[in-house]
Specification:
The protein is mainly beta and about 260 residues long. About 5% of the residues lie in helices and about 35% in strands. It has two helices and 16 strands. The N and C termini lie far apart (about 40 Å). About 45% of the residues are buried. It catalyses: Preferential cleavage: Arg-|-Xaa, Lys-|-Xaa.
Length: about 260
């Protein structure tokens, strides 16, 4: 699955700032020099409705642009995605597998956005956002929330990333069907210092997959698709996932405070 189709920019910042926002249209890579992002291929179509927590976010941005991100259902009132997926207006699609088949799909607008208070858009640190739905999701066989890891959860190794993002370098459109790929998390001090989980290699998330969940052993969500980094000297791509496990308390308190307020 997954390729990052992008423009190449130039910014001399610390290593974790060489990142790629994974929104479906406006994606910018940041390198010291021009570096070919390469083709990121791997994965397969997910079994229909085997990941009922998946959400597709249709984002209305400026100049009537429609962009896309992914997300995960937290409960009947809330969805989580990446903070860089903020938009003026968002519609959430739940229960979706094939974009050409809207049977059993719920479309719900977002009432309020809660990006992490310490989100840093220059380094994508704390790239998490909670979305309050305008009406309750109907929980059924096609739509179910996913459990979240907390700070005490053991660090996983093998995980699955799912999304409707592009599947090859030449693609101009999203995948019409939900795709998934297995990734192996690596130990990297830069990732840990910046509150990310990381994986590396040719297969991984890409344009259109931002905000989708990193689901690991036991079917628990540990992270959210944030960005990727290509070393200026070449080498394997590094995929970054904002840690849910470090922010479980913030997520829970944000949801509780929103319900009390309304």
């Amino acid at each position: 699955m997954f390729h990052c189709d992008s423009e190449v920019g130039l910014d001399q910042k610390p290593v974790m700032s060489f990142l790629c926002k994974l929104a479906v249209v406006t994606v910018v890579l940041v390198f010291y020099d021009q570096v070919n992002a390469g083709e990121i291929i791997g994965g397969q179509e997910a079994k229909p409705h085997s990941r009922p927590y998946m959400a597709l976010l249709r984002r209305n941005a400026s100049q009537n642009q429609v962009l896309f991100c992914d997300g995960l259902l937290l409960d009947e009132d809330f969805v989580m995605t990446a903070a860089h997926c903020q938009a003026e207006f968002i519609t959430v699609l739940l229960g979706l597998h094939d974009m050409n088949d809207k049977k059993n799909v719920q479309e719900i607008t977002v009432k309020e956005e809660f990006p992490h208070k310490d989100y840093n858009k220059h380094g994508f640190v704390n790239d998490l956002m909670v979305l309050k739905l305008s009406s309750k999701a109907q929980i059924n066989d096609y739509v179910k929330p996913v459990d979240l890891a907390d700070h005490s959860s053991p660090v996983p190794q093998h995980c699955i990333v799912s999304g409707w993002g592009k599947t090859s370098m030449n693609d101009k459109h999203l995948s019409t069907k939900l795709m998934e790929v297995e990734v192996t998390l690596i130990r990297d001090k830069n990732c840990e210092d910046q509150y990310f989980f990381c994986s590396e290699g040719k297969a991984g998330p890409a344009s259109g997959d931002s905000g989708g969940p990193l689901v690991c052993e036991g079917g628990v969500a540990y992270g959210v698709v944030s960005s990727f980094y290509t070393p200026p000297s070449g080498g394997k791509n590094l995929y970054l996932f904002a840690k849910i496990s470090d922010q479980k308390q913030w997520i829970t308190s944000t949801m509780e405070e929103s319900l009390i307020k309304h």
